[in-house]
Amino acid sequence: MKNLCLTSAICTILFLTGWAPIKAQQKPADIALKIYRETPAKINDLLNTKLEVRFDYQKHYLYGKEWVTLKPHFYPTDTLRLDAKGMDLKNISIVKSGKNIPLKFTYDSLSVAVQLDKVYHNNENYTIYIDYTAKPDELKASRKHGKGLYFINPDGKIKDKPIQIWTEGEPESSSAWFPTIDKPNQKTTSEISMTVPAEYITLSNGRLASQKNNTDNTRTDTWKMELPNAPYLFMMAVGNFKIYKDSWHGKEVSYYVEPKYAPYAKDIFGFTPEAIGFFSKITGIDYPWNKYAQIAVRDYVSGAMENTTAMVTGEGAQATKRELIDRVHHDFGGVHELFHQWFGDYVTTESWSNLTLNESFADLGEILWAEHKYGQDAADEHIQEGLQGYLDNPQNATKSLVRFHYIDKQDVFDGVTYQKGGRILNLLRHYLGNDAFYKGLNIYLKTNALKSAEAQQLRLAMEEASGLDLNWFFNQWYYGAGHPVMSIGYKWDEANKTQTVYLQQIQDGQTFTLPMAIDIYEGGKKQRHQIWMRKKADTLIFPAASKPDLVNVDAEKLLLGKKNDDKTITEYTFQYSNAPLYLDRYEAIDAAITGQKNPVAQKLLITALNDKYHGLRMKALKGLNMDNYTIRNMAYPLIVTIAQKDDNSLLRAQAIVLLGKYKKAADTALFKQALKSESYTVQGAALWSLNQVNPQEAMILAPLYEKDNKGDLTETIYTVYTANARDEKWEYIYKFYMSRFAEQRYKLTAKFGDYIGRIKNTVNAQLGIKEIKALGIEYKKYVGLKIIDILTSVKTHRMELNDSASVKAIDEAIIDINKAK
After folding, report:
1. CA-based Rg of the chain, rounded to a whole angstrom?
2. Which end of the chain has fewer beta carbons closer than 10 Å to its terminal beta carbon, N or C?
3. Under 8 Å between Cβ of 502 and 491
4. 372 forms bridges with which residues in the sheet?
5. What's the DSSP call for residue 497?
6. What's the CA gap between 226 and 327, in Å, rounded?
């Protein structure tokens, strides 16, 4: 699963813009953090779950009938407890000889305690029948606890938005749409029959066993899952989808998209068969299920979800061929969920404390796929981006990977479990070597197939494969918190011909055991030294015939932490040209960006504009100090070349934007040529840059793209119009502004304010003021003061136009915003 904060406009504002109300830092609930989160006890085991469901689109209800077969896990029992959130439970019976015999039960709106008809032993199965109504929209649930079942535009009132139903079960939300033991250490086979309007497509786990047309213009689809999987991995989806069918080794691989994206389904998801083959090969376990489907739905509350055999992702995954041009490595999210089919679905964490066995592996899957499909530089870039994501939140350093104490289970879905955990696994892979690591994965998967596991079972599998003791590794990385912060210093002794390296771990908390490589470049040769750092500080002395050109500590660039390296810019320049890895060049470019006043750093940055990997060319390009006259002159011809010829559209666009900042009329032809690109991002950059050089020409050309624009091009048309247009573009600008969600609209408001400040039509100006005011009132706590600043600027311009009515409206708007709670 990939979680995104998409449940409210405020949430998105916080993440996308970084604005938050000023308040005192709240401490976590200390008492809750002291509670040990044990693995859920297994009193009864789920065996099979049979569901018959139909939907009430008006009430947002699910009417369900369930037959759940169970047995006691070990001890005899005459009771059963099922999770069932916010339901009407009409009948609970034991099924005997085809008859339903009612049972007594008590229900507290979250779980139901059932008194069985007798004491059952662990060699006896029994089946419970439940007649119920699920009411997800009446459930008092935030994203934190989950509604489980979601009705999207059920009455069809929202134009251009499809009617859909879909589910999301992680961590324990499936019990909001069917009673179950909603714990990750339970597994059950299933049969789900959905009765839906006949025009709709359905998707669920496993195979489509049957379809029956009913007399009331409905159809009943029955999906069967013959291998057991955890309740949180159950799924349903209903709606108007088009299906593209692919295959892998005779197994169906299918892509469900909205009809308008049907021509692009293979472009969006077509990497899947190759990825299935790759993961099957490295694990030694052929894809274990009977099919794999991927479906894109509207308003999804998570990034994506790895439901067994049927992954769900948000509508953002859908794209045309033109849009995909600008989505570098757009398949990473898909391979994340795909690797879950082995790690999370085939073998499942036994508790949320051990979530690393699901999510860290899925994160590793992205790294392995990047390395396989796009090369080592792409993989290393992904590793670095994820590491930085982990490091950017200081709270992450206080949390262990396996976490037995947390406030809410959702808290474990974080940068420690995902980014750090994936990089810990990658570290283990490099320590053991690919062959031993992949053998360990195979042992782990085979030993725990279709069962649940904890991290110690992974350790045992890796030890069996490698023959090495790994307690030190797991104690440090899985059960300990934090990361090393390494300070590195150097001293050359000319008299004794020795190179000293000073290593010091300066972080608080545990001291890390760090096996690492140190490369010494001297006399045109490289010599590698393998060392282990086991103390807070180490001093290493190496003989050398002459002062080394470079001492490259952590030469394999595997340090999972921070590094303060006391190298000179000359040494970094040598590192850039001679050390082979992405991070060698990344570190050198970083140093050059910081020290751009130095001619050596300037030369390094210019050299990096021709780096073999587009990500590092982009880093150098973005890092250029364009206020420095020397850099501007040296970089200009290379920027022109990138703008015209680079094979990466995002890099071309960045170069075009930089050229726009030069404001050279001679570049006009280049900008016009770039407007013919298939890339919306390149087109947007070209139109923006043309507007810098010749606003009149930008205004002439912008209307040509009104009917076909996406992303950056869309934003640029708005920018050009709000900067230059008068009343003639009011309808376009206003419609565009109002079509955006609140958080997007805020980012457009300053330009919108500039525009309404100069138009002549006072009615339209006041309508614009009204909309800005509404935004300021609704989100006063986050952006109220900035909205007032924008309105104050608009007021100045309306005063210049002698528009007293608009000035009055602005004064009233500011008063109303200040009064708002």
Report:
1. 30
2. C
3. yes
4. none
5. T
6. 37
Angle among Cα 290, 210, 218 to the nearest 5 degrees reads 130
Q: Which helix (H) or strand (E) holds 54?
A: strand 44-56
Cβ within 8 Å of residue 704, ≥6 positions away: none
DSSP for residue 417: I
Tokens, residue 546: 């002459």
- Per the structure block, which two tokens stand in for 282? 């490295």
Beta-bridge partners for 149:
167
Q: Which has the closest alpha carbon to 608: 626, 592, 630?
A: 592
Let me know: does 129 contact 93? Beta carbons within 8 Å: yes
At 792, the amino acid letter reads T
Sign for the pseudo-dihedral over CA of 590, 595, 599, 600? negative
What stretches of 694-741 show up as alpha helix (H) in DSSP?
695-701, 711-724, 730-738
> In whole angstroms, what is the distance from residue 19 CA to residue 10 CA?
9
Domain 241-342: CATH superfamily is Neutral Protease Domain 2 (1.10.390.10)
10 Å Cβ neighbour count for 364? Answer: 22
Angle among Cα 195, 198, 201 to the nearest 5 degrees reads 80
Fold match, 350-357+373-477 / 483-566: no
pLDDT, tens digit, for every residue of 569-624?
999 999 999 999 999 999 999 999 999 999 999 999 999 999 999 999 999 999 99
H-assigned helices in 595-678? 599-608, 614-623, 629-645, 649-662, 668-674
Q: Which CATH superfamily is domain 483-566 in?
A: Aminopeptidase N, middle-beta domain (2.60.40.1840)
Record the tokens describing residue 358, joined without a space. 């699901």
Q: Quote the CA–CA distance of 1 and 355 in Å, as a whole number.
A: 11
What residues have CB less than 8 Å from 708, skipping those under 6 apart? none
Contact 626, 655 (CB under 8 A): no
**The two structure tokens encoding residue 535:** 């103390």
**Which residues are 527's β-sheet partners?**
520
Q: How far apart are the first and last CA of the chain?
A: 37
- For residue 9, pLDDT beyond 50: no
Average pLDDT over residues 114-120: 98
pLDDT band at 771 (very low <50, low <70, confident <90, very high): very high
Alpha-carbon distance 302 to 45, whole Å?
29
* Side chain identity at residue 240, one-letter code: N
pLDDT band at 13 (very low <50, low <70, confident <90, very high): very low
User: What pLDDT sits at residue 3?
Assistant: 63
> How much of the chain, in percent, has pLDDT values that exceed 70?
96
Domain boundaries, the chain: 241-342, 350-357+373-477, 483-566, 725-819
Instruction: Please state the separation of Cα 608 from the chain's center in Å.
Output: 29
CATH code 1.10.390.10 for 350-357+373-477: yes
